[in-house]
What we know:
The protein is of the alpha+beta class.
Amino acid sequence: MIVFTRSLTIFLWLFFLAACTAATAAERTPATPGSIAPKTRDGVEALAGPPPEGSTPSTSDATTGSITAAPESAPEQADETASAVCPLTEPVWVKPPDDSAVLTPPEFGYYFVNADRSILASAWWTEEYPLRAGEDGNKLGWFRPAGATLAITGRRIDAEAPPMEAHIPCCYPTRFQATGLVFPAEGCWEVTAKAAESELTFVVWVEP
């Protein structure tokens, strides 16, 4: 019995020494590339390494560590599409005339303007709030020769469509005139305004 106990003790001691030796060797072995997951600056484990040189820039989600391609600008793509099929008129940055019918003092803004500046059409729309087709229409402010009757027509130039409708309320005695333009379809539209001896034509893109 004594001999068996001593043999078991020696066996357990040798097993313990072997385990310690293996653990020490593992700690001294250098890590190979990719064996340790990279971490972001926030200490979150990343799911992918850095992109290779020359690749598309990407953004990293610091919460999940996921990598997604950097999005392109949708509005710029929309502008490029419109410009490719439609000769858009560039509005100019001008200050409209002072007018008693406008409650606020005149401020610089984007307008379509004819050569002698007798007719101005507000180009208020943006990439976020474009001109829209449909019966709801688009409100548009104008400046024309004081008290002159303003006539506005519009036609689509990139495809067949019914003409644009212009709602022009009566009796604006000063240069300012409020209107509503209804485009029956999306696309490229040429708008022409006439008042007294003055005329203004511009081309715009209308979204659905």
